[in-house]
Specification:
This protein is mostly helical. The chain has one domain. Helix content is 74%, strand content 3%. It has a two-stranded antiparallel ribbon with strand order 1-2. α4 packs antiparallel against α5.
Length: 118
């Protein structure tokens, strides 16, 4: 949020968001804010999930699952950085990481279910 509008996101009583958002790890290649990647991934996931839902397109479900595997690895890396390198926790980052992992579980169940129906 800081990189987008110049302000720190509301973070709660424990803080941590400003520390995480201003760290060198909040931007990839010195240009792309990590938050942009997360937002972009979410938009793509919603589109793919809608395609799978409406058309029963297994390829879209496979794309969702694959993207979520990659995203889960990336949020695990970012969570590691928060805990052990930056030494600050951003609740927004934790909630995003949690929803990514839960979404991967849901996608895995959908993959399993769709393979038994095929």
């Amino acid at each position: 949020m800081l990189r987008l509008i110049g302000e720190v996101a509301a973070c709660g009583p424990r803080g941590g968001c400003a520390t995480v958002q201003t760290s060198e790890y909040a931007v990839l290649f010195g240009i792309v804010p990590v938050a942009f990647l997360g937002f972009g991934m979410s938009v793509v996931l919603v589109g793919l999930a809608a395609t799978w839902w409406r058309r029963a397109d297994r390829a879209a479900l496979l794309a969702v699952y694959s993207l979520l595997l990659l995203a889960t690895a990336f949020v695990a890396y970012l969570t590691f950085l928060e805990l052990f390198v930056i030494e600050a926790i951003c609740p927004w980052c934790v909630s995003y990481a949690t929803t990514t992992v839960v979404s991967l579980g849901v996608a895995a169940l959908a993959m399993r279910r769709s393979s038994t129906q095929a």
